[in-house]
């Protein structure tokens, strides 16, 4: 299991212990989270799928929400991991009109193709 996957699982386990999510992680959830992490950090023919820390942060946020890897708490875990990842990478997302929680609900409800969704979210969070 990827080290980041282990951190995500520990994060979810802590949410469960604190009563913030209702269902424990099972092996299939851990495998799905690991798959997301490996996708975000993958290379295809020597080219990184998500080459910058901003790209990775947005990918984690969107993929954890849209791929729905756990029974309960996908949006909460995605937002928490996004914040942790941004802090670790010294990224400064700008949330002006929406909170991250509101953005997470919007991401979940959006029907755009994943690459298009990530581009929109990236523009919202990291206006250049």
Overall description:
With 128 residues, the chain is mainly α. The chain has a single domain (3-125), classed as Four Helix Bundle (Hemerythrin (Met), subunit A) (Up-down Bundle). 63% of the residues lie in helices and 3% in strands. The chain contains 6 helices and 2 strands; from the N terminus they run ααββαααα. The chain has helices at residues 3-17, 27-40, 53-67, 74-88, 100-109, 114-125; strands at residues 43-44, 47-48. The chain has a two-stranded antiparallel ribbon. The longest helix has 15 residues, at 3-17. It is globular and about 35 Å long. The mean pLDDT is 92.
CATH class: Mainly Alpha
Global mean pLDDT: 92
What is the multimeric organization of the chains shown?
single chain
Q: Report the CATH architecture.
A: Up-down Bundle
Radius of gyration over C-alpha positions, nearest whole angstrom: 14 Å
Approximate shape: globular
Indicate the CATH topology: Four Helix Bundle (Hemerythrin (Met), subunit A)
Q: Number of DSSP helices?
A: 6
Biggest sheet strand line-up: 1-2
What is the total domain count? 1
Could you tell me the strand content as a percent range? under 5%
In whole angstroms, how far apart are the ends? 35 Å
Question: Based on DSSP secondary structure assignment, what is the total number of beta strands?
Answer: 2
Helix content: 55-70%
